[in-house]
Design goal:
By secondary structure, the chain is of the alpha/beta class. It is built from 12 helices and 16 strands. It has an 8-stranded mixed β-sheet, with helices on both faces. A 4-stranded antiparallel β-sheet has the order 10-12-8-13. A two-stranded antiparallel sheet has the order 7-14.
Length: 405
């Protein structure tokens, strides 16, 4: 399904499709003005302006520094229910190589992950929900800063997000180029991995490359650690479980000093896991290997291990419910209920640690550029904006249905 052929059922989709051009205009304006985590001043201002025009009941800003929350009350609130929807707003420190008219106007910054589209989709849902109010309860729309490595979800929670808006459940979605437009994917367990960062500091004794026997060669130690680290997954993690250990950067010596062995080296990498017990084991084994290898060569190694984001794990009942909602719009043939988890990470995981909920993927295809997420030629597919908005809105309507007269 592409372009004008992208169709979905339900009242929400038909209603929202009427203002598709306005959603495109908003999305492209946000794309042209990308901002990093906690710097989303322009973005949050545009969101507040849009929510005001939509007629939402309450607009709260500066939650988690630059976060915005919109509140919409249904035609009835007798159920006392409150359900949350979340969209991320921040961009990436990436130079854009597209040439369309809405390309980034900021050198070195771009919306390379589609958060501009996520924001526009939630605004579309806000407009529909405020205009129709076909639900019994309160909808809480969370526009979150700093997903790209800043843990903005956690910061909003620390700033009292769920104390001020005690939702019973919360939902989020992310565009997915690997899936066709007009499709939705979900599963009832892990959707994204936990992301950990480690830094290994190796100290030896530098010297002349011609007299290596007088040194403790940290480059050699680093090479052995890089190789040995790959054995952690292959020889310690059960084949039916998942983990990734990647050494992503190495720094040692001076490229202009070809005959000088350095006295120190630094390695930086990431660990991705789904199971906390596997996560604990990988951290333990990495530290043991580094220390033992360094000791064997007469060097020392210090491992700094930091847990960045926990795994994003859907709660079963909410995942089943979200899949049912997606099916009501698209039909069973266009909803994948057992979507393969990604080893990428997502800070919506913090919200799912505190509240029941589900994280969905909405297919968007790779488009003319053939680009995936975090690519300098990526762009969000505007064709899916009404569908994403309708899916958000339908989650609210079906989670808090109005009583039949």
């Amino acid at each position: 399904m592409q372009g004008a052929r992208l169709k979905a059922g339900g009242r929400a989709f038909a209603h929202i499709a009427q203002y598709h051009p306005e959603l495109i205009a908003l999305r492209r304006d946000l794309h042209a003005h990308p901002e990093l985590g906690f710097e989303e001043i322009y973005t949050s201002t545009r969101v507040k302006e849009a929510l005001k025009l939509c007629g939402v009941d309450e607009i709260h800003d500066s939650i988690g520094r630059t976060g915005v929350v919109g509140v919409i009350r249904g035609r009835s609130t007798s159920s006392g229910s409150m359900v949350g929807l979340r969209a991320d707003m921040d961009a990436l420190p990436l130079t854009e190589h597209n040439d369309f008219s809405w390309k980034s106007c900021k050198q070195g910054l771009m919306h390379g992950c589609g958060h501009d589209g996520h924001t526009a989709m939630l605004v579309g849902a806000a407009r529909y929900l405020a205009e129709t109010r076909n639900f019994d309860g309160t909808a809480v729309l969370v526009f979150q800063p700093g997903e790209e490595g800043f843990a903005g979800a956690r910061v909003m929670m620390e700033d009292g997000l769920f104390d001020r808006f005690p939702v019973q459940s919360i939902f989020a979605m992310h565009n997915w180029p690997a899936m066709k437009p007009g499709t939705v994917g979900i599963n009832s367990g892990p959707m994204m991995a936990a992301a950990d960062r480690f830094t290994i500091e190796i100290t030896g004794r530098g010297g002349h490359g011609a007299h290596a026997y007088q040194t403790v060669d940290v480059v050699l130690v680093a090479a052995h650690i890089i190789t040995a680290a790959q054995s952690i997954v292959s020889r310690n993690v059960r084949p039916i479980e998942s983990a990734v250990v990647s050494l992503c950067a190495v720094q040692a010596g001076d490229l202009g000093a070809f005959s000088v062995l350095p006295g120190s080296a630094t390695l930086v990498g990431t660990v991705r896991t789904f199971d906390p017990q596997v996560q604990e084991m990988v951290e333990k084994r990495l530290k043991e290997l580094c220390n033992a290898i360094a000791l064997g060569f007469g060097a020392t190694a210090t491992v700094h291990y930091e847990r960045i984001y926990p795994a994003t794990i859907n709660t079963e009942s909410e995942a089943i419910f979200a899949g049912d909602v997606a099916e009501s719009l698209l039909g069973a043939d266009h909803v994948v209920r057992d979507l393969e988890p990604s080893m990428g990470a997502e800070d919506f995981s913090f919200m799912l640690q505190d509240k029941p909920g589900a994280y969905l993927r909405i297919g968007q295809g790779t488009g003319a550029s053939g680009s995936a997420l975090h690519n300098s030629r990526y762009d969000f597919n505007d064709d899916i904006l009404p569908l994403g908005s309708a899916l958000h809105a339908s989650l609210i309507e079906q989670a808090m249905p109005l009583a039949m007269p």
